[in-house]
Amino acid sequence: MDWKHVIGQGKIKQQLEHEIKSNQVPHAQLFTGFPGYGSLALALSFGLNILNIKHSDKNDLSLGKLILQPDFHFIYPVVKRGTEKEVFSIDYSEEWSSFLDNYLYGNYNDWFDLIQVGNKQGLIRVNEIERLHKKMHLKAFNGGNKVCILWGVEKMNKEASNAFLKLLEEPPDRTYFILLAENEEELLPTISSRCQLVSLGPISAKDLALKLQGDKISDEQIIAQADGDYNRLQNLVKKVHNKELEAILVQGVRTAFKAKKNKAVVIELMSWSDKLSLLGREEQKDFLIYAIQFFRDAFLLNYGLEQLVHYQSKNGFDLTKFAPFVHSKNIQQLIRLFETSHYHILRNASGKMIFADLGIKLTRLLNLPGE
Question: Angle CA(254)–CA(257)–CA(261) in degrees, nearest 5?
Answer without folding.
Answer: 135
